[in-house]
Amino acid sequence: MKVLVLGSQGQLGQCLQDRFTQTSYQVIYHCRADTDIANFSETSDNLSSLNPDVVVNASAYTAVDKAEIQQILANQINHLAVDNLAKVCEKIGCFLIHVSTDYVFDGKASQPYQEDDQTNPQGVYGVSKLAGEIAIQRTDYRFLIIRTAWVFSEYGNNFFKTMLRLGAERDSLSIVGDQIGSPTYAQDIARLIVGLVPQIESNNVESGLYHFCGDTACSWHQFAEEIFSQAKNFGYQTPKQIKSIATKDYPTPAARPLYSVLDCRKIQSTFNIKKSNWRHGIGQALTLL
Questions:
Q1: Where do the domains of the chain lie, and which CATH numbers do they carry?
Q2: In this structure, which of 4, 23, 66, 118 has its CB flanked by the most CB atoms within 10 Å?
Q3: At what angle do helices 278-288 and 186-201 cross, to 10 degrees?
Q4: CB–CB of 180/259 below 8 Å?
Q5: For this structure, is 210 an active site residue?
Q6: Residue-wise pLDDT tens digits, 128-184
Q7: What pLDDT, on the 0 to 100 scale, is given for residue 49?
Q8: What is the separation of C-alpha 42 from the centre of its chain, rounded to a whole number of angstroms?
């Protein structure tokens, strides 16, 4: 079984490397320098040459606010490149695993979003990611789309690492407290994906869209409080005060959904998967930093 991981130097890509090293699969890791998915001909040539059985697309344009300005680039990477990738996978006969986002929803719900709930992204990033999902589904080939949320880990740039940095620099922080979501440890997403490969190998996986996120919902403020609570035990300097503020008091170029909790019952029942224990993930990430 040959697996190709695209975006191998990103947050999820590095977690996938950690997890796949514990298996016997032949895994090829490509960063953008190896395969730039925005270069359609390069992507087609490389995948055709490697001829993998499974492609894991861990590459994406994730700069939510910058996407409002770099709209063409965000659409190129999150939509058009994914469309091309899906078509190439269909052409060479390999399974595609693609990671998407909770930002495809508008945040007006009052209960966790299910996979077939109405999408209505509020920013360019969400629009581009949704377009990528639709492009994959349009091929009607072999795929899994995994929507996740508030991803953090010991790798890359993310909220968890930003809080540790700011906590060491400032005595007081103001964190948004009226946006509710489910933090998700990237190592748990990687563990999920690696665990799906044997089922793909034995043809026990039907194409589909699934939600996977943290086991409990919280606000960004509550997320920060938990990060600092655990960070103290590791000797990190933490702020004396963590204020909860409203979204309106922290304007950003891109609108964020006020509520983006994902319902994970479908993936739990289909694959016997547990949701990400994000509090435990914080401790794990602190241990690995």
A1: 2-158+184-215+260-277 (3.40.50.720)
A2: 4
A3: 100
A4: yes
A5: no
A6: 999 999 999 999 889 999 999 999 999 999 999 999 999 999 999 999 999 999 999
A7: 97
A8: 24
Amino acid letter, residue 187: Q
The string of pLDDT tens digits covering residues 200-224 is: 999 889 999 999 999 999 999 999 9
3-state secondary structure labels for all residues of the chain: CEEEEECCCCHHHHHHHHHHCCCCCEEEEECCCCCCCCCHHHHHHHHHHHCCCEEEECCCCCCCCHHHCCHHHHHHHHHHHHHHHHHHHHHHCCEEEEEEEHHHCCCCCCCCECCCCCCCCCCHHHHHHHHHHHHHHHHCCCEEEEEECCEECCCCCCHHHHHHHHHHHCCEEEEECCCEECCEEHHHHHHHHHHHHHHHHCCCCCCEEEECCECCCEEHHHHHHHHHHHHHHCCCCCCCEEEEECHHHCCCCCCCCCECCECCHHHHHHHCCCCECHHHHHHHHHHHC
Output the CA torsion sign for 229, 234, 240, 243: negative
pTM (two decimals) = 0.97
> 76 near 37, Cβ under 8 Å?
no
Burial class (CB in 10 A: 0-12, 13-18, 19+), 145: buried
The one catalytic residue in 29, 61, 103, 125 is 125
